[in-house]
Amino acid sequence: MKKHLTLFIILFLVSHLVSSAQMTYSPNATPGFSFDTYGRVGVDWNYDNGGSIGRRLNLNNMGSIGGRLEEQDYLELVPAFHFQPFNENDQTVIKVQTRFAVYSRSLSLFGNSSTSSLGGLTIALPEIYAEASNINGKDFSVWVGARLYRTEEVHIADHFYFDDHTGQGAGIQYKNTRFSTIFISSTDTTSDVPPYFFLNIGDGIANLSLRQRTVMVLDQAFQLSKGILLTGMFEFHHMGNTQNNLPEPTPADSDDIILNYPADHGFVFGVKLNSKLPKLGTGAYNNLAVRYGTRLANGGDGGHSKTWVTYGAPDLEKLNFKGAYSLSVVDEIKFDINEKNNFNAYLVFTQSKGAANTKAMAKTYLGREIYNYKQDLTLGLRNVRYVSDKFHLLGELHYSQRKEGEEPMYRYQKVSLAPTFAPTGERSTGVRPHFRFIFSVSHYNKAASGNLYSPYLQLVGKQHWGHYLGVKAEWWL
Q1: 208, pLDDT greater than 90
Q2: Are the beta carbons of 400 and 376 closer than 8 angstroms?
Q3: In Å, what is the CA distance from 203 to each residue of 7, 66, 337?
Q4: Inside any domain, residue 48
Q5: Could you tell me the residue range of the domain that residue 302 belongs to?
Q6: Which CATH number belongs to the domain containing residue 419 in this structure?
């Protein structure tokens, strides 16, 4: 009897503690739940090897700029919890969101791979943040965490430009004014950016310690007129110094690896003009953006536009990035030609230089030789013809050129044709899912072919022509 009584008391106390904990940490109302997703999956075949090749036809270091139809399998799962305010009259919107991304770092297909296989699947967590918006019914919001903090995209090139402030930090927004701070730190020794770590020997033992880059961003939008929005952007980057008790930075002439370089900084200035074009149909627009980054803040390469991914080499005499810069210009237009045809075109231009006194190869703080100058230009267009409600015909044409250092200009052109089945039956460029049959042909100039300056050429060898045949599905929700 005593044993049963003791067990009853223990169970009562445990249940009481659990219920108390739930009352302490749970909201007063059951939260809502939403689930979004983006993904693409498919197979491909190539004439050169009679099988799958799994590589873009685009030029090297351009990502999907130059056409995205050959992109590999990719999946995002986005669960979000929505909390209700305690006061029923409170209009505050509260959300906690997480984003899981799944992709392969090799040529593996999703169906033939796992996270444990060699070169298999990778699972990343690009988003985990909490946000409160419309606070007390006003146009005011706050957020903290890691998020894909970006707005502008050239969809047919899968290129987020101008304001890609993706990272971990915090931010506030009041009406048309946004301020955020992103914190970047890593012990990655394979990157060419200035190392985010240093040798800490304050205790007599050499250990790696993190040094953090802080990026502060201010965006201000101005509604010039109905349908015309002008946005100005300013960024300040600061790379912290090492600890005061560390030795002087390693001289460049005695050691190829310099970790204890002094503090550095950079600035970014940008302006963007979003224009609606009602005379060209519902949803027609033209977006133009110009951005200039200095010193450490001259990032924007590899198909990305993050300014904190510093481009080029430092000045190893002064141990800083003074004189480094990057200029980016992006323009996109989209409109309906008529009821059966939609037209979309874009231009992406980037010119970047590091701080070393050369356009050729130069050494980084980690002793690697990299290009200190690059210029690229890409033009592309897509026409979507609505043959019927469920059958759409996509046609694309892309031209891309890129120069690195003192190397010759690399050029390529690509034509793609993609008959598309849209099962929902909506005549829209944004409707998904899509089932696409894709055929692409590309041509490379002598320099690109001879230097294998394409993921495709690196596999098939020195050729002037490239081919891609695939069946793909893409969706979002």
Answers
A1: no
A2: yes
A3: 53, 51, 69
A4: yes
A5: 43-55+129-476
A6: 2.40.170.10
